[in-house]
Amino acid sequence: MKLAVMVASLRKDSANRQIFENYQELAKDKFEFEEIEISNFPFYDSGVENLDIVIKANEQIAKCDGVLFFSPEYNYSLPAVLKNALDCISRVENHAFAKKPAAIIGASPSPIATARMQYHLRQIGVYLDLRFLNKPEALIGGVYEKLQDRKITDESLKAFLTRHADAFYNFIKESK
Ligand SMILES: Cc1cc2nc3c(=O)[nH]c(=O)nc-3n(C[C@H](O)[C@H](O)[C@H](O)COP(=O)(O)O)c2cc1C
Prior knowledge:
The chain has 176 residues and is an alpha/beta fold. The chain has a single domain (2-175), classed as Rossmann fold, CATH 3.40.50. The chain has five helices and eight strands. The strands form two sheets. Strands 1, 2, 3, 4, 5 and 6 form a six-stranded parallel beta sheet that branches. A hairpin with a 2-residue loop joins strand 7 (147-148) and strand 8. The N and C termini lie close together (12 Å). The chain binds flavin mononucleotide (FMN).
């Protein structure tokens, strides 16, 4: 199965990007990954649906079996770079999010662990008609203590991400 991946932090040392890097290794027996480059999207303006970058992203998503978001929480919500990409792609006629299985993995140094961001993203997914995996929720708190040299050092987090990947794989299979 192939997943379209959106990483909603532009930082080179992003904890969320590092979790994605580790996830690719942990879930390589189940998934291939195609990252949607959202950092170069222009801010939404009328006509964005005709831009190559937006059309290409929509085509990438259409070819994938599911969408996986790795996102921090910014001011109790999702980062603007992700919201903007969702807004732009949502204006493409028959956009590829409709009925697509999706899952969220969010990491934060805080114990609330991106919960508020995740519920905002789920709310947006209602209008996009994304089909989100409900359980398990991937809320990674205290993330700075769980990474060293870009590797997850916390064994229980590795085991959890493997279980999450299994659940998402089965969810996609059941929804086909
Ligand atoms: C603009 C901004 C707003 C933030 N708001 C929150 C927040 O609401 N909740 C939270 O847990 N962390 C918040 N943080 C801290 C981030 O969780 C932390 O910077 C995290 O490392 C960002 O993810 P990244 O490492 O993947 O870039 C905020 C950080 C920034 C830059």
